[in-house]
Amino acid sequence: MSEYSRRVPVVALRGMAVLPGMLIHFDVNRKMSIDAIENAMENDQLVLLLTQRDSDIETPGQDDLFQIGTIAEVKQIIKLPGNVIRVLVSGTERAQLENLIEEQPFLLGEIGLLKDSSEQHISNTEKKAMLRGLKDILEVYFIENTKIGKEVIKQLMKLEDVQELIDQIAINIPLSVEEKQNLIEAVDLIERYQKITVILTEEIDILRIKKDLQNKIKEKVDKNQKEYLLREQLKVIREELGESNTQTDADNYLEAAKALIATDEVKDKIIKEIERFKNLSGNSSESSVARGYIETLLSLPWDKAGVDKTDVKNAEKILNQDHYGLLKVKTRILEFLAVRILTQKGESPILCLVGPPGTGKTSIARSVARALNKEYVRISLGGVRDEAEIRGHRRTYIGALPGRIVSGLKSAGVKNPLMLLDEIDKVSSDYKGDTSAALLEVLDSEQNNKFVDHYIEIPVDLSEVLFIATANSVQSIPRPLLDRMELIEVTSYTENEKQHIAKEHLIAKQLSKNGLNRKQLSISDKALNRIITGYTKEAGVRNLERKIGEICRKAAKEIIMEGSTKININDKNLIKYLGNEKYTFQTANTTDEIGIVRGLAWTSVGGDTLQIEVNVMPGKGKFELTGQLGDVMKESARTGISYIRSVSRDYGIENDYFENHDIHIHIPEGAVPKDGPSAGITMATAMLSAIIERPVRADVAMTGEITLRGRILPIGGLKEKILAAKAAKIKLVLVPKQNKKDIEELSEEILEGITIHFVNTMEEVLQHALAG
């Protein structure tokens, strides 16, 4: 506890701590610290030495310093070049910084000296026990740490005062700054004794572990040295007998290089490497590196190409067999094949299939490879952060390997495979390089005929590789990379398409996977439709396949355990196999309501409907938004209210209405984050409905962005939004007029039963949406 208070200059120490009884030199270069020491020399030569919590802070305050430090007497000052002074101080006693009075031009603190209140309660017998225990630990520590000088050991072992011994141990034994600070803060003798005992015990354990590790390493090195000598002797014996494995390997490589289908330039490079390999010691580390490099070069398909099928009708048949729908993808592949037949070569396109998960992007690539009779290589790019994964490691690194592109060519065995770059939107960058930038050369048809891998070092021709990339979202693909690819959108499947895919592909696949056949298990159309609508909520069919697989597994169990021969799944017994339905679409409201409007949203798993609710109440003009809305939706809401205020006279709204009423917009499912530029007209309609107390038609849904002047801007994801409206039994959908071209691309199956109205201004929206 503090004994008395006084004012003393404070010196902040970086990366060091001074204990009582310590005589130490240290350099000071900060002006505030130099001023503090000079002030101390003009008075009683005493300073308070406090350790900084963070060494990087240049001008520390009270919170940046440990509060307990050491009062030290400045013994000597030596001025050095560069405004640096070397100070000799002697630590005297512990003190606590109670208040930092001044910070400029130097730190001046009000301090209290700390005295040990527990020492008077400790008997001499206890002190002797502590002293002996500490010396016993010290003896073990000195055995393990041979770097401590003999004079220091003698000096410490002669001490008979336990408090002095603890302080001298802390001064003479290498401890970290944190450990020294802990000992400074331990004012009570018992606490200090416990801390120094724990520190010494831990140090003994660390020294023993370190010694064990060093012994093991030494044994390993000795073993390797012995093996090296034996190998050298064996090499000499073999040379005397005329048996040289290196020579045999080099000859084999030379024969393989001559037989290689490659240009003379590539062959000359490989032969030079083989000649160099001949002159290396067979057991050297360089020899094994050269061996791996030569074998990689020989295994690459430099000019070896596969023969593509040129039957367009057969390719179309295979694509239709493997996939239902996906007309854009199939058309583009058939176009590529037709051009190749006419030109005898044709540039291989770089296609990027973009769409939600589970829509069959990866399996399309496999089908294309089968249709064109190409070797298929899949490279997963999800989470790849290192540029060397694409371009390879330089051979100077230990364990160097070629990049994934060259490794894919090597595994394909031909220079014109179909290479799938899966999840290209998931590549990332870190300090090891930009992966997406490394892909630029790979995916540029003007450059990839001479792609250089860091490991191979010889240009590799990628121009004949048919690259197909997949991505879930275009937004996360860097623009330069996106510019080099031809985008093909793989949109969400309709319920009808999912039913066809399930009947023609998924059921047969899962029956085979689970050891069943169609005679043992059948699923009715109604049951299938119920699985699609009630048990899955997705853009693709991945979860649909899982549910069919779940039915198959339970049917297999029933056949084995209960002896069933035929199981028929229909909409009545479906609950037995899949449990209760998990998803229900929020259908259209039955009655027109004030301030409630149905919006349409695009999500990563397809479309969905959002019911926007607005309440108006007496207040002071407060405008509140709830439901985890993102910044874009918040801005849309503010734009909407600004538009309504600008046309308030047209709807008979009083001038002071907005100053006397609060408006609250809420989008249910508050735990789900929502954002996007397509809810502007929905929120504006809901707000105006609540303000003028006119109901909104229950069978209307809308999507579009609003401007301050009431114009309607186009939006994206229309197919998914229309499908969501159809599932919710919406009759009328309001769509921006500029999206008319997108609606025209949709099939009649999607638009059946829905009326589309194209709107250009907010006035048109209100004419269709407001009832009465």
UniProtKB/TrEMBL annotation:
What does the record note about the induction of this protein? By heat shock.
- What keywords tag this UniProt record? ATP-binding, Cytoplasm, Hydrolase, Nucleotide-binding, Protease, Serine protease, Stress response
**InterPro entries reported in the protein's UniProt record:** AAA+_ATPase, ATPase_AAA_core, Lon_bac, Lon_bac/euk-typ, Lon_lid, Lon_proteolytic, Lon_Prtase, Lon_prtase_N
Q: What is the reaction catalyzed?
A: Hydrolysis of proteins in presence of ATP
Q: Which GO terms describe its molecular function?
A: ATP binding; ATP hydrolysis activity; ATP-dependent peptidase activity; sequence-specific DNA binding; serine-type endopeptidase activity
E.C. number(s) listed in UniProt: 3.4.21.53
The question of whether Nucleotide-binding is a record keyword is answered with: yes
Task of the protein: ATP-dependent serine protease that mediates the selective degradation of mutant and abnormal proteins as well as certain short-lived regulatory proteins. Required for cellular homeostasis and for survival from DNA damage and developmental changes induced by stress. Degrades polypeptides processively to yield small peptide fragments that are 5 to 10 amino acids long. Binds to DNA in a double-stranded, site-specific manner.
Similarity comment: family membership: Belongs to the peptidase S16 family.
Its assembly, as annotated, is: Homohexamer. Organized in a ring with a central cavity.
Output the NCBIfam families linked to this UniProt entry: lon
Protein name per its UniProtKB record: Lon protease
